[in-house]
Amino acid sequence: MSLIAPPLSLYVHMPWCVKKCPYCDFNSHGLRSEPPPYAQYIDHLLADLDADRADFAPALEGRPVVSVFFGGGTPSLFAPKLIARLLDGVRERLPLADDVEITLETNPGTVEHGSFDGYLAAGVNRISFGIQSFDDDKLRRLGRIHSAGEAEAAVKSAQDAGYANINLDLMYALPKQELDGALADVERAVALKPTHISHYQLTLEPNTAFAANPPPLPDDDHAWAMQEACEARLAAAGYGQYEISAYAQPGRRCVHNLNYWQFGDYLGIGAGAHGKLSDAAGGQVRRRWKTRGPRAYLDAAGGPARIGGDHTVDAGELPFEYMLNALRLVDGVPMAAFAERTGLPPRRIAAALAAAVRRGWLHDDPQRLHTTVLGQRFLNDVIGTFLD
């Protein structure tokens, strides 16, 4: 089987935030007395991109970028003029699709974002708000520095600036949360009429403050009840679930995240950013990640020291890596896409597929790979079936 180059995205990591949240295991760094070197960081991002383009030139040839995603940290700590400078530099270096989706993550606190009309003028056409909850007590427990009122005001401000494509991040199974509280958060979110809602369960991740000192969380059965009830409410409001934690109005699915879940390609620039690139000619999938510390990344100045690791994915690992993404999609993926994205013959996963079907985790469908309702609930077990 031959590997076919999938769509290409660009991920840009902005590592600073006002305050590190106790549940967060992302590569984010709270602000200190000295302000971060924002302008210098933009220069280094472009140098990083130049170096990656040189390293991966044959694999990038003729491929337009379908999405750009600014993640963090809090990317909106960067002023609109700096985001504009970076995007201008990206356009000079890579072809962008005519309908490219460009997302900027932001938090509702007024000290954490610039003017939304400035970001829109810079080329950002999608805003993602880290709301998490509309309950002020829950926000305090999560270590958030905004209030529910500030969250609603920020969303309306972005809409007034002209944004028609907005995502809200919500969490459920929060400390001491009941079912009514989880549903109330969804109601407040739906009332703001965003085009997309990401609704995910709070989990205790290693090396976080919550992991070291766990708060009282709902048990698994209560968390599952919250997920089912909120999913039904979102569906009634016109938000279709297309991934475990993602709900969208018709035509508003996130292009960038869909590319991840469909095992697409992406360049990753910035401190700790990860990338994945398919070399169709060589039949290999390669992963590269950048050094995590912002200071070390800046000191590398776009040179080889910016690279934290580089790895060609072994053929034995590809089925698991593919399923880790594709099985998150509620509608699944065409069966033929496995061979196209991995370069492996379908027989490599035949035994694992048969086992998952027998357990009732996957539909018995020779044309499409997708989980049953039971498989969605026990997704980690389903994915583990495909470990080499």
UniProtKB/TrEMBL annotation:
Look up the domain of life of the source: Bacteria
Q: Which organism is it from?
A: Rhodanobacter denitrificans
Cofactor (UniProt): [4Fe-4S] cluster
The compartments listed are: Cytoplasm
Q: Which GO terms describe its biological process?
A: porphyrin-containing compound biosynthetic process
Q: What is the protein name stated in its UniProt record?
A: Heme chaperone HemW
Name the family: Belongs to the anaerobic coproporphyrinogen-III oxidase family. HemW subfamily.
Signal peptide, first to last residue:
none
Q: Which SMART domains match?
A: Elp3
Instruction: Kindly state one GO CC term assigned in the UniProt record.
Output: cytoplasm
Where is it mainly found?
cytoplasm
State what this protein does.
Probably acts as a heme chaperone, transferring heme to an unknown acceptor. Binds one molecule of heme per monomer, possibly covalently. Binds 1 [4Fe-4S] cluster. The cluster is coordinated with 3 cysteines and an exchangeable S-adenosyl-L-methionine.
Note the coiled coil stretches, chain numbering: none
- Say if the entry is tagged with keyword ATP-binding: no
